[in-house]
Write a structure and sequence with these properties.
By secondary structure, the chain is α/β, with parallel strands linked by helices. The chain has two domains: about 325 residues, 3-Layer(aba) Sandwich (Alkaline Phosphatase, subunit A), CATH 3.40.720; about 70 residues, no CATH class. About 30% of the residues lie in helices and about 15% in strands. The protein contains ten helices and twelve strands. It has an eight-stranded mixed beta sheet, with helices on both faces. Strands 2-3 form a two-stranded antiparallel sheet. A two-stranded antiparallel sheet has the order 9-10. A hairpin with a 2-residue loop joins strand 2 and strand 3. Helix 2 runs parallel beside helix 9, helix 6 crosses helix 7 and helix 8 packs parallel to helix 9. It is elongated, with a radius of gyration of 23 Å.
Length: about 425
Amino acid sequence: MRRPPKLTRRRLGQLVGGGALAAALPSRPARAVDAASRRFIFLFARGGWDPLHAYAPLFDSEHVDIPEGAVLAEQNGMSWVSHPDQDAVDGLFANYGDRICLLNGVEVPSVAHDRCRKLIMCGGSDVQIDDMGAILGAHAVDSPALPHMVLSGPVYAGDSAGAVARLGGEGQFQGLVAGSALHRSDVDLALLDVGVEAAVDAVVRERSAAVAAGSGLSGQAARFYEGRLASLEGVGRLGTELDGIDLSDTSESGQVKAAADLLAAGLSRSVMVELLGAEGTNWDTHVTNAKQTALFQGSFSVLLQLLDYLDVTPGSAGGTLAEETTVVFISEMGRFPQLNSSGGKDHWTFTSALLMGAGVRGGTTVGAFDEYLVGQTLDFDTGELTESGDLMSADDLVATVLALGDVDPGDYVPNAKVVSAALD
């Protein structure tokens, strides 16, 4: 494929808002934040994105299909695929490239959605296994009420299940907090004697209080009442602490704002949001791969809104939330380097991931694809491509994110290596 001209600085300035380049909007250097207190927002692109639409500018290769009309763009130490219909991608790298580490050539050794999803989020595919967000939530040092909040998207929680809360697609979470969920029953509670409900509640509260006072209950009974007491106290606090946080706006823009608000309020350490990009579809473009353009444009527009909001939202350490939050944007797999007979692209075992914000070495691309869109081996400490190095795999990505949160990766992905070149 003939190499197209680079995207000029003038053109890039037009794309990101009348010349509002990163040079005109300098980013503040990140404030030092203790890794154990670092917060996380996970964004998930379900279905498998195409690195050749944004992350892999392989314009010199004759073995890949890059979107028609795309050109090479370079700024802030980053190189990416720019397209006239993806100005949000240009805006992200132009305005926030100095906070971004792009991981290219990450291997996810499967082409099955479910298994790849679990691999990219957990570093393994065992039945009982925890994802990055659940683990980080379980290790929160300040005991937030909702350690890992899943507003939308996938979640895997085995041992860390107690740290996970889900919003639910029909307002189930809000119903539990408000108490209205008690009336979602096949039995009309209005027909029951309210005195019975009150009596049962009183007994449970009394026994729970007895456990707290050391009544001698042990085993499963004690654990039940201890959990019940903690739940009663927690729900009471939540009703007040959630004031001002809009969980009813299920648009992607609304969800990322709610994610940031949950972190700012100290209610969560990590939050998951699924980005479907365009018209509520997903990224599995076996037919008409050109749909990826709208998917990238839609999702990156939301991502820009999130990063802008983090910049103006106060954090817990006197600075902004941006200075203490890491944003992780992933998809479960990549897409085949060439188009199929339907103009789509099938599944591919190599992909990209974006790390942004606190603890991340910005303006950096770690890893690379060869001319066939296959990941290349590298030195994880320096980022240098070398034949004696290793392929970057999904479990290495998980290990790196856990390290960003001061969690020992060896406890969860014992055979993985931290990609130190991605860390500040």
